[in-house]
Structures are given as structure tokens and as C-alpha cells.
Amino acid sequence: ARCPTSVDSLMNTPNKSAPASAPPRRLNWNDPGVRSVVYQVLALAAVAWAVWFLVSNTLHNLSVRNIATGFGFLHREAGFAIGETPIAYTPADTYGRAILVGLLNTLRVAVIGIVLATILGTLIGIGRLSKNWLVAKITSVYVEVMRNVPLLLQLFFWYALITENMPGPRQAHNPLPGVFISNRGLKVPGLEGYSLDWMLAGLGLAIVAIILLGHWGKKRQEATGNVFPLGRAAIGLLIGFPIIGWLVSGASLTLDMPELKGFNFSGGLTLSPEFAALLAGLVIYTSAFIAEVVRSGIQAVNNGQWEAAGSLGLRRKQVLRLVVLPQALRVIIPPMTSQYLNLTKNSSLAVAIGYPDIVSVVNTTLNQTGQAIEGILIIMAAYLTVSLSISIFMNWYNKRIALVER
Q: Which of 82, 103, 390, 394 is 20 to 30 A off residue 348, Cα-Cα?
């Protein structure tokens, strides 16, 4: 007789330990997951319909008025001059090159403004926490006044101050040889020649070398405790690399002196009144907000850090530079990014004082071509690209200095 618990009986017996198959899930409106999916689909459909309606309505209106669309106008001759051109440009060039000149003008004032506003705002923010009563009060008044006066009014003020109180070119102030100050701007001697590009390349290499050297010096200090003299090495690199570039290129460099010819100056470098007024307004206005960011960041650091560093014999300046500011950066960087973006976007007010930024150039372009929608899209794309680039860089730097949990 075969055992009832044979292999055949075991194989024919259902496995009671196996989990039963789950019943199919039914769509129930009371299920939060179902509702969230439905709401998202409806929201996406509404956005798609709104975009379709706007685009189709715009194209219909343009076709009714026989207005051409597209960016083909960028290859046509511009036919208008631009007062400040960081690259070669003539009215015979295309609209595309004219818009590139405007974009470079915007980037120039934005980059220089960010650097100067950061320096000035940091000094004012530290000054607000000074134990000197006069310094603290002066910086506090500066912050309160500059933050509450509209930027456009400040631009008008600086532009009127520069243009109306300065003499004409023939009566220009000449404080130094080759330096002239008039209502046409500040004229200073410039450099020309084949070696100039090599010297600029050497300066760029020096900056990269300083960054790498600082990173190496920090690791060396953490490993050995020896401080690397980065300041003296940086000065040597900033002077030595451009000189090497000048020698390698054949030392072909001449000094271009400005001269009065007719009713204006020719030669040299020019700092126009429009650029100076725009830069002054942006720097002074934004530095007031940066000062508050720096002040709040320093105050976010525990007072025990000041006391502990002071007990080691460090002076107040050393405590601020070596102990407090490195910790405050983790609080300062996120709101500082917003101020950099504000400065870049506020540069669009340059059109009010005649500085040829991208808004001014595109406005002239769309007035001549009638391509208003394309012009607005170009301006939006330019500011969006610049703003996202600044945000990406600042977010990368913020992650780099963030504390890492262990």
C-alpha cells in the first residue's frame, strides 16, 4: 500500500501557505490616488488648451494683418548705429549681430555690477554690525534710504548728475595726461596691438591657476597645518602671466591716447555717461539689499563662535574673516542669488537713460521690422538663459559649501 502522504498526494494538495491573488483594483472617486491623477490630467489639458488658443489666435491675427512671422529678419541689414559696441559693429551688419551687441552690453553691466555690489554690500553689511556708533548709523541710513527709493529714480538722478554738471568736450577736465572728463564720458588711454589678446589669455590662465592653487593650499593646510601664502602667489601670477604673454607674442603693444578732434574725442577707452549712471544706480541700489543679507547671515552664527575664537587670541577682524564669515556663507548664498538675479533683470531699465542694452536694441529692431512677438521672445529667452545660468552656478556653489551630515 502506498503512503497517503506520498509525493503524488502532496503535489495534488493545494498550497495553503501561498498568498491569494489580490482582487483587481476598481476605480473609486473616494481614492485619493485616483483623484490626484484625474486632477493632474485635467490641469494638463487646460494648460495645453490655453497654449493652443493663444498660439492659434496670435497666428490668425497676424495672418489677417499680413504680418510675416519667423526669425528670418535676423539676417537682414540692421541700418542703425549703436553707441557702445564691445565687438565690431556697423549699421551694415545684420539685426542678429545688433542683438548680440545688446546682449553683450547687458552682460557687461550685469557682471561688473554683481562684483561691485557684492563688495560694497558686504562692507556695508559688516558696517551695520560695527561697534562704532557713527559707522553703524551711517550704514543703517544708507540701507534704509537706498532700498526705499525706486531704482528708476536713482538712474535718472545719476544720469542727470553726470551729464548736466560736466563741461563739453572742448572744456573737458584734464586731471592727468590722456584722461578727459566731460559730458561725453570718461576718456582714458587704451592698449592696442597683437599682444593684447595674449595678455588677456595670460590673465585668464592666472585666474585659473590661482583657483587651483587655492584648492591645493587648502588641502595642504588640512594635512600639514602649514598655511600657503596664496596672496603673494596670486599677485605674482596676475603680473607674471600677462607679461609672459606679451613677450611670447612679440611685445607688439601700443598706447592709444585719446585726442580731441572736432566736437568729440577719438581713440582711447570710453566710459560713457549712460554706462556709468546705470552701473552706479544698480550697484548702489542692490548693495543695500545685499548688506541686509550679509548682516542677517552674520547674526545667524552663534555668539559662542565669537567668544571661542576670541578666547584663542584672535582679533575681531580675524574672527570675522576666518571663523564667522565662512559659516555665514551657508545662510548668505541662497538670498544672495536672488539679489544677483534682481540686478540682472533690473538692468532692463537701461532703456530709460539711453544705454544700448538688449531691450533697447530689440525695441529698435521690432519698430523697424514689425516682428514684435519674435522680439519679445528674444528678450525673454536672453534673460531666462542668463538667470538660469546664474542660478545653476550659485546652487552649485551653495552645495559645495554646505555642511555634510555624517
A: 394
